[in-house]
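Checklist before submission:
- one chain only
- standard amino acids only
- sequence pasted in full

Submission:
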Amino acid sequence: MDRDMALEELKLRIENKNTIKHSLAVEAIMRKLAIHFNEHEKMWGIAGLVHDIDYERVQGDMTKHGKMGADILEALNFDSTIVYAVLAHNPANNVSRRRKIDKALYCADPMAGLIIACALILPSKKLKDVSEEFVLKKYHQKGFAKGADREQIASCSELGLTLEEFIRISLEALKEISDDLEL
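Returned file contents:
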């Protein structure tokens, strides 16, 4: 499955533009992490792109999220590594994160949300104005971006990354696609 086809399949199932933008953000972070770890950039990126392919279909039932996504991706003949990473990214599925790609997707998902939330509270609403220090400060504010699970973000340590390194890599990735995110 190539990236254009993966994006097309995502857009067939997701209508909400913010969910599409979130998927693009997670894709960018995953690609940057793959480069950092000398892993398969295309595969990691596609995993990030399609990780929420079932989001609208599960209609808020997070016990189905990831499971339905994995079923969709399997039916579309996506690589089994991507299918497994999508299944494992939702902690409600109680699936062990065995590979680096699984661990990366698990922490990249909420990190994308945290960084975008940081941009949206700035007067400019632009990623170029978000600093690593600002993201770190907001990370420690429990009431900020409550949906960005701090425990999941902190699991970047399972990849051998400090929180600061993970923020730097992720912020750099999102700044590179700021036009696509309209931020």
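Reviewer check: The CA atoms of residues 3 and 93 lie 26 Å apart.
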